Each structure stands twice: as structure tokens, then as C-alpha cells.
Amino acid sequence: MKKQTTLISAGRDKKWTQGLVNPPVSRASTVVFNSVKEMKLATANRHDKTLFYGRRGTQTHFAFQEAMNQIEGGEGCALYPCGTAAISGALLSFLQQGDHLLMVDTAYEPTRNLCDMLLKRYGISTTYYDPLIGAGICDLIQANTKVIFLESPGSLTMEVQDAPAIVAAARQANHDIVVMLDNTWASPLNFSPFEFDIDISIQAATKYIVGHSDVMLGTATANKRCWDQLRENSYLLGQCTSPDDIYLAMRGIRTLGVRLAQHQKNALEVAHWLMQHDDVDHVRHPALASCPGHEFFKRDFQGSCGLFSFVMKGGNSQALTALLDGMQHFKMGYSWGGYESLIMGVNGVDKLRTATQWQATGTLIRVHIGLEDTADLLADLAAGLARFKAEL
After folding, report:
1. Among the options 80, 108, 129, 247, which is catalytic?
2. Is it the case that residue 16 has pLDDT exceeding 90?
3. Distance between CA atoms of 107 and 113, rounded to whole angstroms?
4. Residues 6+ apart with CB under 8 A from 277
5. Residue 227 has pLDDT above 60, yes or no
6. Annotated catalytic, 207?
7. 48 confidence band (pLDDT: 50, 70, 90)
8. Cis before residue 188, ω within 30 degrees of 0?
9. Are 279 and 385 in contact (CB under 8 A)?
10. Distance, CA of 10 to CA of 209 (rounded, Å)
11. Per-residue confidence band for 233, with pLDDT thresholds at 50, 70 and 90
């Protein structure tokens, strides 16, 4: 089945929709039973999308979980109140005191903070690795390594990882190692983790799945060998979501394909324009040859999205402020994946990593290209880059 058709049909089983086009919003905390037998039966079947207690989910949640399984190809999908909760919930489900974690050096900053603060306090050690390490990761695997975590492309600097080589090295060293991927950039449409033997696919569904900058939501979809442990430990951690938010995420799934295609088109147009700009050193868009790991993107991905970065020739805090403060269509914000264009800048990217060296000396700008007319976005960027240069 084609992916766009899957997006439309996913989670549409009549037992959840009751014959309606969209699954109804079912709100619940307590589920009541009329007999001991009925209560025992629900308790025994609580793992199988049976109404048991509100935190386990309602028909609204079950429909969305089924949809995510159909789109991603997993065995089960755990739901969380945000993407960071999905990352922490997945890691805490498979790590305990004395374990070792291999974390990509270009991970989302809150993921790094989780490792350096919370996991360290729990007696879990973390080694950061070069995102381009590939099969060389075998040299970092220890006897107590339990999880290898990927984020591809990397946060801010956009390096694309050789996921098949990393997975192969992990399986050769110890088949029990759990390989996780933050797959938010690609979404379930542009990279299929389970086709590459990755165990858990994590989405900050806040971003492209919801797509309208109005819901916080995270998902972790697991293969068969990891699903039971992920499901039960996430439940023990108290993770649950609002059915109203899930309804909006389900609505977002239906248009994910057409939105993502337009984000990709607009972003590539802007990226090619930036490549020709005299004051831009290089563009870090996975679909362009100038991005580290581009060859893995060409081999493994089905497409791109609206998020990428570019590096200026030089820069300072005054120049960055001048660029950002005067933008008309690009606004500053700590998320992305909605229909609007966003921009942020970083001086000193080297401070965000420990295992690798950042070679570029200029300011890094990250943009999310939304669904506006690109002519307006290009004019906005042109004016911003002129303000940047004037402050150098």
C-alpha cells in the first residue's frame, strides 16, 4: 500500500471509529465494571487495547497507536506528553544502574542534559560518539553497553548517520543491545527504522505529526522483542496523554504527506538560494552534497523536510541579533514542524558537543521553512543577511 493511502486509512478500524470518519474523542479516568468477572477479564486483557483504566488509554488512543504501528511497521506504540518524555521514557525502560549508553554527540540538547544529569545520577554512564562513526562504533561498545541511541540528521548541525553500519556493529557485538533512533526529522514517511533492524523509533509528534504548533506529544514505536518492556515500563513511569491531543495528532497524520512534500519543496528552494549567497559559507541540508553524511541520506531516506542549517562566513553576537530581531516572516521559537517558518542562531557550536570537533568558525543559523510563499521568505532572509553583514 502506498504511504499516502496508509496515512488516510491508518487507525480507521470500525471498533475505534464506530463507523465515523474520525475516531471520536473518548475521555476517561475510571472505567467501571458490573461484576468481579468483568473486572478480572479487563485486567487480564489490559495489554490488548481493552478499556481498563484511563492511563492505559481509550478508543481514541488505541486508534492513534494502531495508526502509528501501521505507518511505521512496529509491534506497538507508547504515548508520551512530549518528545523529550518519549526519549526519557524509552531510555529508562531499558537502562538501569551500572549500564552503559552510547549517545550520538549531535543529540538534541535536552537528550544530552538527560544523560549528563538524570542518568548519571542513576549510575548509568554515557559515552558520546561521532555521528559519522559508522561501523567504527564497535570500538566503543563495552560489556555493559545496553543501548545505542541515534539521531539522524543530528540536531542543529544535521549530520546523517550510517544507521545500517551502526546496527550491524551492535548486532555483531551483542545482539541484546537495544538500538533507538530519534526519527523526528524524517517522520515515519522519509525513513523507516524497522527496515534497518532498529528496535525503537521515537517521534516528537509535537512537530510534523501534529503539524500545527498546538499540541505537545511524543511516541516511541517498538519492534516485537522490545514492545512488552517498553509498554510496561512506560506505564510504570506514569506516562499518559490527553485524548483531545491524540485526536489532533490523528487529524495531523491524514495530511502529513502533503504537508511534508510542500515543506521539502520550499526548503530546497531556500537552501539552493542560500548556496549562492556570497556571505554563506555552506548549507547543511541532508539532500545537498555539502551536508556531512549526504551519501547515507541518498541511500536510506525517501525525502527531506523543512528543517536545515547553514553556516555564515564569520559572525558575532551583534550580527546574529541584528539578523534575528528584524525578521518579518521568520519568527524565533524552540520547536519546528508546524506550518510557520522559524529561525534561530548559534555562536560557538563546539560548546554543544564533547566527542567531536566543530571546524566551522562562522555563526550557524537553523531555519524551519514553513508553508509561506518562498518569495516572501527569500526577501526576508536577504534583508536579514544584509543586516548581519553590516554588523561585522
Report:
1. 108
2. no
3. 10
4. 385
5. yes
6. yes
7. confident
8. no
9. yes
10. 13
11. very high
Task: Using DSSP, state whether 303 is helix, strand or coil.
Answer: coil
- For 362, the grid coordinates are 562562522
What single letter denotes the amino acid at residue 348? Answer: G
Q: Cell triple for residue 224?
A: 516485537
Q: Count the neighbouring beta carbons within 10 Å of the beta carbon of residue 367.
A: 24
Residue in the block written with cell 561585522? 392
**What does residue 246 show for φ and ψ, rounded to 5 degrees?**
-65, -40
Query: Which of the following is catalytic: 130, 182, 300, 380?
Result: 182
Catalytic residue among 27, 40, 55, 224: 55
> Is 325 noted as a catalytic residue in this protein?
no
Which of 56, 207, 231, 254 is catalytic? The answer is 207
Alpha carbons 159 and 252: distance in angstroms, whole number: 27
- Which has the closest alpha carbon to 369: 346, 342, 344? 342
Residue 182 annotated in active site: yes
Top-confidence residue, 47 or 71? 71
DSSP-derived secondary structure letter, 80: E
**Closest to 182 in 3D by CA, of 165, 212, 199, 202:** 202
**Residue at grid coordinates 506505564:** 235
Q: Which whole-number Å values give the CA distances from 212 to 24, 253, 344, 377, in the listed order?
A: 20, 11, 19, 19
Q: Find the angle CA(24)-CA(71)-CA(149) to the nearest 5 degrees.
A: 115
User: Can you read off the three cell numbers belonging to residue 164?
Assistant: 545500517
Q: What is the pLDDT of residues 150-205, one digit of tens each?
A: 999 999 999 999 999 999 999 999 999 999 999 999 999 999 999 999 999 999 99
Backbone φ, ψ for residue 129 (5° rounding): -130, 155
**Average per-residue pLDDT in the chain?**
94
Return all residues near 141 (Cβ < 8 A) that are at least 6 apart. Answer: 102, 148, 169, 170, 173, 174, 177
- Report the pLDDT value the prediction gives residue 259, as an integer from 0 to 100: 97
Length of the chain: 392
Q: Which residue has the cell 545520577?
A: 121
Q: What is the pTM of this model?
A: 0.95
Residue 177 per-residue DSSP state: P
Q: Name the residue among 1, 22, 3, 28 with its Cα closest to residue 242.
A: 28
